[in-house]
Amino acid sequence: MAAGPVDMELKKAFQELQMKMIDTTRRLRQADVQIETLKKAVKYAYCTGEVISEAPPDTKMYQSVGRM
């Protein structure tokens, strides 16, 4: 008879751990996606900076001031 309540407590604890693991895994995936997105943005900004720095000083350029 004592095994019943203990089993239920273990089952509940295991379910809680599973939910935490699922949530943590989801957060890790989101962080990985965000890291990749930011890496691409940094690479794009670096390439843009390289192109701009190679242009002659008297070259006319524009700067974005709002959303696209």
UniProtKB/TrEMBL annotation:
It comes from the Eukaryota. Keywords: Chaperone. One of its GO terms (cellular component) is prefoldin complex. One of its GO terms (molecular function) is protein folding chaperone. InterPro entries: PFD_beta-like (IPR002777), Prefoldin (IPR009053). Belongs to the prefoldin subunit beta family. PANTHER family: PREFOLDIN SUBUNIT 1, PREFOLDIN SUBUNIT 1-RELATED. This is Uncharacterized protein.
